[in-house]
Design goal:
With 281 residues, the protein is an alpha+beta fold. It is built from ten helices and nine strands. It is elongated.
């Protein structure tokens, strides 16, 4: 019988899992007892987590660090976004018959929080939790067009590498494309990320920056993009109204993070689930 030896990542998850409970502070001995790991392993992992900001140390006690609480706040926000969007995404998928995405921006990449589509849509290579470069995707361009200049500059610094012959790789052309997105209210991806796959996306926003984007994608739907655009825009507006009400601006990220220390136990459970989910992203 083969005995499974936990990996370093699994050991770190056990250490963090020890903090799931009513006691916010734990000693080294308490973490050892709750995790079931050796004292030397726990001591080494605790030191690394403190250096990374995932845990804080106060004398002999350890507690969840600000970095971990910030991630928990963002996870709770993303879960709320997905719950609010899901009925509207299903309606959009039924109306169009194509793959529907809900995505957020993470640095120079988009992360898919939701993907709706059947086995017939396997030609669109995306998955929940998957990532794609923002510059060549409809959702990425829809968010970037209504984002701060620092985010656009970060994408340009990361480089506009050609994914297909149709990918925009010149910064001036890319900025001009973002200007067109602001004028139209939708972004198009015409085989810029994958050959044969086209998308139309709309940002989730009020009067300010975009917090996410909704898209419809399919293989060979290039001629349908303009026809699909109003439905995608309407879905984005409906999701926004569900979240914040019509005409309201999104709360700033700094405000979300400032509220992080007040997370309830249920939100901490959500946070830990997100961290497990993030291991394979």
């Amino acid at each position: 019988m083969t005995v499974h030896t936990p990996s370093l990542l699994e050991k770190a998850a056990l250490v963090l899992g020890a903090f799931q409970g009513a006691t916010p502070r734990l000693t080294l001995t308490e973490v050892v007892r709750r995790s079931g790991l050796s004292r030397s392993s726990v001591h080494r992992i605790l030191d690394q987590l403190v250096r990374l900001g995932w845990l804080d140390r106060d004398g002999r006690d350890y507690r969840l660090g600000m970095r971990l609480l910030e991630l928990g706040a963002m996870a709770a926000h993303h879960n709320r976004l997905r719950r609010a969007a899901l009925p509207h995404l299903h309606a959009l998928h039924e109306r169009t018959g194509h793959v529907v995405h809900l995505a957020v921006l993470d640095g120079p990449e988009v992360v898919y929080l939701e993907r709706l589509g059947g086995t017939a849509d396997a030609s669109v290579p995306s998955r929940i939790g998957g990532r794609q470069p923002a510059y060549c995707t409809g959702t990425g361009k829809a968010i970037l067009a209504f984002s701060e200049e620092t985010l656009v500059a970060e994408v340009l610094r990361a480089g506009l590498r050609p994914r297909t012959p149709y990918t925009l790789v010149r910064p001036r052309s890319f900025r001009a494309e973002l200007a067109r997105v602001r004028e139209r209210g939708v972004a198009f991806d015409r085989e810029e990320a994958f050959r044969g796959v086209a998308c139309v996306a709309a940002p989730l926003r009020g009067a300010g920056r975009a917090v996410a984007a909704v898209s419809v994608c399919g293989n060979g739907i290039h001629r349908e993009l303009e026809r699909l655009a109003p439905a995608v825009r309407g879905t984005a507006r409906a999701v926004w109204a569900e979240l914040y009400g019509p005409g309201r601006a999104a709360p700033r990220r700094t405000a979300e993070c400032a509220a992080a220390p007040a997370l309830e136990p249920a939100q901490l459970d959500t946070m830990m689930s997100w961290l497990r989910f993030a291991e394979w992203m």
